[in-house]
Structures are given as C-alpha cells and as structure tokens.
UniProtKB/TrEMBL annotation:
InterPro entries: Pkinase_fungal
Signal sequence annotation: none
Compositional bias (Polar residues): 751-760
Protein name per Swiss-Prot or TrEMBL: Fungal-type protein kinase domain-containing protein
Residue numbers spanned by region Disordered: 166-197, 751-824
Residue ranges of domain Fungal-type protein kinase in the record: 348-601
Basic residues bias: start-end ranges: 798-810
C-alpha cells in the first residue's frame, strides 16, 4: 500500500532535507515480518568465492596503502559518535572499491562501472516514486571510475584535515555527484550509536532497495551497532546476515564491497535506467529484440517474496516529458519472482488461454524469453523463487472509474462471462478474482487485433452484443493477473497447478476462507423459492436472452428445481449443513469472489453530488472496517451478510438502496450448500444463475435510464469510525496532478512541473477550464473537480449540499461525462493517477480538505 499518499509516483515528496527521519511503524513491522537467518561462514564464503574467481585480489586490497590509511582513520573514531563516523566509513568503503576495480582490471577506462558509496544521511534520496521518504546513512550506487577517483581525491584531503582538528562534531564529506537516486542504488547501510536490538529500519531500506531494482536478484547492506558491524544479503528468497564482527575487522568491509560488484555483474542487463529527471523515473527494457520505455508505478508486493515491479509502457521518444504525461500509454510490463515449484507460470497460462485465438475479455500479452534462474530460499518462511517477466498488450482502469451503476453491472457481467469461457473453453481457472484483477474500459494494442495477425474467438456474447445484437461489440471488462491460476478439467472437481489456496482475503469465497474443519460454517435455513420465478422470467426477454444463452435447453432450470426441492426439504426438517474447508477451489468460488467485489463497489460508491462521509460509526463504516480487516478463518461478518443480505440496504448509499435487492438475490443463490448437490448441477450453474439475475437488472436499466445512478469516479464514501482513526487521518493529497498539463498541451508542461516541485508557483497556468478527467490546478493547489466540471463554483465558504437523486443524475447527464477522454488515449501518468485514486476505495489516504470541499460544494443543477 502507498507509504506516502500525499505524493504521486511522478512527483517527489516535499520534505525538508534537514529533518531527521525517525523509524516509523512500518519500519518496526519490517523487523518482525522479515526473518533474518544468520550464516556463520558468511564472510568466509565471500572470501573463498572471490579467491576462486580472482586469485590474490583479497590480499591485494588488504595491502593497499590507501585502504590501510582509510582503515586507520575509521578505527580512530569513537564508537558512540554516530554521525562522526559516516564520512570515515564512506572513505574506507570507496578506497576498497577503487582497489577492487584496479586489481580486477588494471586497464579500466575512466567511464567503466564502479561502486561509489555516499552518505546521504542529511537529505532525502531522489527518484522516490514509491514514496518511501527515507535517509539511509550510507548509500551505494554505480558510478564511473572517474567519479570515484575525483570523490576520493577530495575526500582524502578533507578527511585528513578534519581528523587533525580537535573536535567531536560530524565530519562533512565532499560534495557528492548527482547520483543519489533510489532506482540507481545497489547497496545501503545504517549506523546506530548504540547496540540496537531492532533492525527494522535497516531491513526497511534493504527491502526498498530491492523493490527499486528490477534488474538485481540480490541487494546487499550493512548495519553498524556501536562498535560492531554485520552484513546482510536480501533476495526474493529471504534475508541472510553475517555474525556480528568488530567494526575494525577489515574483512567485513571487503566482503561487502565484493558482494556489490558481484551483484552488479549479475544484473539483468535487459533493464537499464537512464538518468532520472526530477519529475519522473523511467526505465528502458529490451525484450525479444524490442526496446521499451517504461514509467514505473507503485507495486504492493513485499521483499522478500514476489517483489513485483510494474511499469506502463510509454511511446518513444521517451526523453520527451509529454511521452508519459500527454501521450497514450502503449502497454504494461510486470516482473515478479514466482514460486519455482509451480507447474506453470502466468505467461504459460496466458499462452494456454489465448491458444489459437485471443479470448475476449482477458488481458493479452506478448511473448517474452524467460531467463531461468532459481533464487534459493533462506529458511522455512520462504520458498525458492524464479523471475518472470510479462509484457502485456492490454490496459484497463480500476473499477472506481465506472461512471454509473449500469456501467458497473455491465463490467461485472462481462467479467463472469469471461471467467466462464476461461475455465470451460481454455481449461484455466483464475482463482484470484478481486477488485484489483477485474478492470473496466479495456484497451488492446491494435497489433493484437485480427489486422495484426491473430483473430479473436467468436461466439462469446458480451453484454453489449447481447443488448444490441451487434457482434462487433467487445467486452467492457478485462480480467488480469493469472498469477494464482490452475489447470481445470470440468467435472473432476480438482484444480492443479498451485500448492496452497489462493485469493485476496476480503474477496475470497467464505467456504475457502474457513481455516479448518473445526471452523466450518453453519449454513442458515434460508430459502431460494423466490428465485425460481426470477431466474425463469429472464427467458421472456426474447432475442436478448437467446443471445446471452444460445445453448440453453432448459437443463439449468430443471437442475435448479431439483435443488430447490432438496433445500426446501432441508429447511422444513431443520437439516444441518456446513461448509467444507477441504473442498477444492471450484469455479463457483470465483463467482462468489465477484459477488464480494460487486458488494464492495456498491457499498463504497458515492452518487454524483452526494455527501462523501458516512454517519459516525454508521452501519456502512462498521461493515467496511470489518471487510478491510478480514483475515482467513475470521468469517463471522461476511458469512452473516451472505446469509442475511437484507442488511445490505443499510450499508448502501440511500440512492443505491434499490440495488440491494439484486445483491440479496445473488447472495441467496450463493448461500446454498452446493457441496451437497454437486452431483445434481453442472459446473457452470452459478455462472448461469448470476448472469441471469444480472441480465434482468441490466436490461431494465438499459431500457429506462432514469433508474440508473451516476457515480462519483473521483471520491468514494468516507469510512467514518470514532475508534479507527486510520481511515480519517491519513495525509492530504493536495497536489497538482502530474498529468494535468496533458489537457493544455506540451507548452504548459514546464510551468505545471514547476508547481509540482514547489518552485515558481506563480508560473502555474490556470488549468481549471481545461480539466483532464476531472483534475486541474490553479496557483499551485489542486482542484479535483467533480465530473460536471463546473469551474465557476466558489470554495471560500464550502457548504455540504444534498439534492434529490433525480436532480443529481440530470446534472451529471448535462455536463461532460467523467470518461470524456477516451480510455485508449490515457497517458501512462493518467493511468497511474487512476490507480492512486483507486486506493481511496480501500481507505488508503484521503483527498486534501481543499479538494474535498471543492468537490462537496459544487452547486446542484438548476
């Protein structure tokens, strides 16, 4: 989750360079979550490996006069003076680095790669698109030999002079070259004035460094605790540390530098990092002979672990700032370290799913040659990992960009249809359907269309085809992320390919989320009698029904009536039924996940013009809190909702309360103990039932637009709990959108960027009349406009106003639609902004007061 929500991946967070960085709660969490394994022979093994690869190198470094001098100066610093030893330690590390480079290649060019250590303890690192906000005491980067020698030449003189003076203040290093950027880091170090028992801050830096470097399998660091030092190596397979050594032991410092050179020599050269700009970081990746320009985005997976790194592809020339802020993004790239024991990786499942023809509604991909290299595990907490690179040719928006209830229902319908085709026709079961893996507004690279050489599977009816009869229409949903998929054979009730149950906890099927047989859930004595007429009535839609279910032969309703009879008998006799925690992951479980996604969307959704905030400790806020805190094995809240869905009406916004009946009907179907009736129904019965219920609602809204409700795509309802302030006290997000200038063209980019970095605020153009997706800027402060784009409203005395649903919807229809910019035209920065906005739906951050007041105070339509 974003760690600095008042920033964007393209805007450096504005913090003082002179304010100390205390170890925060996230760093403390790292100490508990990241288990370190101590290797007794850590340093000895490094020395042995180095002697095998470069005989005599270790001894040559020890014998270096410059290394000896730096070592002596470092040993003379008092162990309890933390800041005073930064500079001497940095000099020692760089002297070892120069000796290493000189002895491994005496003919080194001035421009060759060497390790350069800096001590940025007095200012923040740049290139911080993950918003980590940190000041490590030591930071290693790759520089040229010429830069290393120049730094050392100045440092030797300055250090000698400083040490000769009788004072105890900090020793200041010479001016550093402009290389201190997180994405260029290769090592990090932390110094403590006393014997600290916590390594959370140090582990935090190590994990951050790995997340910034998609080209490195391992990163290395060290921590000084008073008079001792220990080394660490972090990889996706875990964290290994050395035994603590006296800081005066030279072998520890040599081993650390040797590891940095080894890591750099083994880097994935398919990735490179051009010099970062102050505004955004971009990478270049060369895959299958094609060069890609990439703008990285925030990623959530941690290190050790999958270490997922993701980026939007930007059009060339990448050095043109408008390529990321004003030109359409052209793809998406993801790297991650997958479980090496998995039978198939995501790319292989995508190959299967798209064999012969593209499957409509599923993300498309380009072939990428994988470099197989297994990262060993360090202990039982971790597993062997293998790097995988995926280059996607499809893009989509988070569900928060659905502009109306009808739009949302159409997306959900197509998502279920695509999931059905994926497991039935292509034999791949998704197993992790969630908010994050169901997207709206899909776009596919034109080169993947039939004109590009590969056709799209025919006969897959998406909702627009069903409603209009136009077979040229495409799905409005996009399923992504087959990370946890498995091969599936219909009728066998066994999915193979993954060794553990999968899913996002708050969206997992309740049956799978039960922790054990002892924790089995008791099915309530609910009735599905009322569903018979509703499921059958859909057949009266004529051509619409026939286009949706061309293969229907009456079998579904026959099977449903058999189950209905059995359920009514169980209800009358008070027959008990329980969930089966040992049941395999089945297609119906994925459909239940889609149901929880739909409930979450409707519950968090705020109609256009309606107040954002729930009543203090209201029904919605309490329910949303329980969903966010849900963990596997703790099913009371969700199970109660599934069995008593009538309470949904109290959770939804009043303007959306009418949709609670649809959710109640879906819940009633899902709460049946289907494990008892698996011999009666087909595998696809849940898909058919839910699609029938959705189709009836969609058809009604489509024929009567006044029943639809326009949704605020910029702001969800705010969770308001007295006892959980984490939902209401996050930092503000008053900023100039990094892509706001796209609306005014490249000429305004420079002045807009000046606002973002806090300089030349007076030069900011007034963008309130050229809003791009509801974002603009004026005088250096964000004005997140409502979808109607009423730029004339005043924010001096904001007042909360509520209007009738009819007026709000009329207003929304009169103004420009929130999706007025075609989704195929969105830039990488705009798509990244959409992703950050979607975090608001999970109570991560909030809009700044000025932006929220501005949205809240817009007048209703006359």
């Amino acid at each position: 989750m974003p760690e600095g929500v008042n920033s964007t991946p393209y805007r450096p967070t504005q913090y003082s360079n002179h304010v100390g960085m205390r170890a925060g709660p996230k760093q403390a969490d790292c100490d508990e979550e990241i288990v370190a394994y101590v290797e007794d022979a850590y340093i000895a093994n490094v020395k042995s490996d180095l002697e095998l690869s470069h005989a005599g190198l270790w001894d040559a470094i020890v014998a270096s006069d410059d290394v000896k001098a730096a070592h002596g100066g470092f040993r003379g610093i008092a162990v309890d003076n933390e800041k005073r030893h930064y500079f001497p330690a940095t000099v020692l590390l760089n002297e070892i680095s120069l000796a290493y480079a000189t002895n491994t290649n005496p003919s080194t060019s001035p421009d060759d790669r060497v390790v350069l250590y800096l001590s940025p303890s007095d200012h923040l690192l740049t290139g911080d698109y993950l918003c980590i906000r940190s000041k490590p005491d030591f930071f290693a980067t790759v520089a040229t030999r010429n830069e290393l020698e120049a730094w050392l030449a100045a440092a030797r003189v300055k250090l000698t002079t400083a040490l000769s003076q009788d004072n105890k203040g900090p020793l200041q290093a010479p001016d550093s070259p402009p290389l201190q950027a997180w994405p260029q880091g290769i090592g990090a170090g932390e110094g403590k004035p006393r014997d600290s028992k916590s390594a959370g801050q140090f582990k935090y830096y190590m994990a951050a460094l790995k997340r910034y470097r998609p080209d490195l399998d391992t990163v290395h660091g060290f921590q000084i605790n008073r008079g001792q030092v220990y080394l660490s190596t972090m990889s996706p397979g875990g964290l290994v540390t050395s035994e603590k050594e006296d800081r005066s032991v030279l072998s520890a410092w040599i081993a650390h530098i040797a590891l940095l050179y080894q890591a750099d020599s083994k880097r994935d050269t398919r990735f490179s990092l051009p010099t970062p700009t102050p505004h955004f970081t971009r990478y270049t990746a060369t895959l299958s002979g094609k060069s890609l320009s990439l703008a990285p985005i925030y990623v959530s997976s941690r290190c050790p672990g999958r270490c997922t790194w993701a980026a939007f592809e930007v059009p060339n020339p990448a050095d043109d700032p408008t390529s990321y802020a004003g030109k359409p993004s052209t793809g998406f790239l993801k790297t991650s370290y997958q479980d090496a024991s998995k039978k198939k990786k995501e790319t292989q499942y995508l190959d299967i799913a798209h064999e012969g023809t593209w499957l409509p509604g599923l993300v498309r991909h380009w072939p990428v040659s994988q470099v197989r290299r297994v990262i060993p595990e360090t202990g039982q907490e971790y597993i062997k990992r293998e790097k995988e690179i995926i280059h996607l040719a499809s893009l989509g928006d988070p569900l928060s960009r659905c502009t109306s209830a009808l739009h949302l229902l159409k997306v959900i319908y197509d998502a279920i249809e695509t999931h059905f085709r994926l497991y039935r026709d292509r034999r791949v079961l998704h197993r992790d359907l969630s908010w994050f893996n169901i997207l709206c507004n899909p776009w596919h690279d034109p080169k993947t269309t039939p004109e590009g050489g590969k056709s799209v599977q025919e006969g897959v009816p998406c909702i627009e085809q069903i409603l209009t009869g136009d077979v040229a229409k495409e799905p409005c949903a996009l399923l992504v992320d087959l990370d946890h998929s498995a091969e599936y054979k219909c009728g066998e009730r066994i999915a193979t390919g993954a060794r553990v149950r999968t899913g996002t906890p708050m969206f997992m099927a309740c049956e799978l989320s039960s922790s054990s047989r002892d924790a089995a859930l008791d099915y309530p004595r609910s009735s599905i009698v009322h569903l018979e007429s509703q499921l059958e009535a859909v057949e009266n839609l004529g051509d619409v029904f026939r286009r949706a279910f061309p293969d229907d032969d009456g079998t579904f309703m026959k099977q449903f009536r058999l189950v209905l009879e059995a359920e009514e008998q169980r209800r009358k006799t008070n027959g008990k039924a329980f969930t089966n925690p040992k049941t395999p992951h089945l297609p119906r479980h994925d459909v239940e996940s889609v149901f929880w996604v739909l409930v979450w969307c409707f519950a968090r959704a705020c109609p256009v013009g309606a107040p954002f905030e729930d009543a203090r400790n209201g029904e919605f806020s309490n329910w949303a809190h329980n969903m966010l805190k849900h963990t596997i094995g703790n099913e009371s809240a969700r199970w109660t909702l599934l069995g008593s869905a009538q309470i949904l009406k109290t959770i939804l916004h009043p303007d959306l309360a009418s949709f609670s009946e649809l959710l109640e009907d879906i819940a009633a179907y899902l709460i049946v103990p289907w494990d008892l009736y698996h011999d009666i129904v087909d595998d696809d019965h849940v898909h058919i039932a839910i699609r029938r219920l959705l189709l009836a609602q969609i058809h009604a809204l489509n024929n009567n637009p006044t029943l639809d409700v326009k949704l605020n795509t910029l702001q969800p309802r705010v969770i308001n709990l007295r006892s959980h302030t984490d939902y209401v006290s996050q930092p503000s997000r008053d900023y100039v959108s990094p892509w706001a200038s796209a609306a005014t063209g490249p000429s305004s980019l420079a002045s807009t960027m000046a606002v973002q970095t806090g300089s030349e605020a007076s030069a900011a153009p007034d963008l309130t009349k050229s809003v791009h997706h509801g974002s603009g800027a004026s005088a250096g402060r964000s004005k997140r406009s409502a979808p109607d784009d009423d730029a004339s409203s005043s924010t001096s005395n904001p007042k909360k106003k509520t209007t009738s649903k009819k007026k709000r919807n009329a207003k929304a229809q009169d103004g420009p639609d929130a999706q007025s910019t075609p989704y195929s035209k969105l830039s990488a920065a705009a798509r990244c902004e959409n992703l950050w906005d979607s975090w608001l739906w999970f109570a991560i951050g909030r809009r700044g007061k000025a932006a929220a007041d501005e949205l809240e105070s817009r007048p209703s339509a006359a």
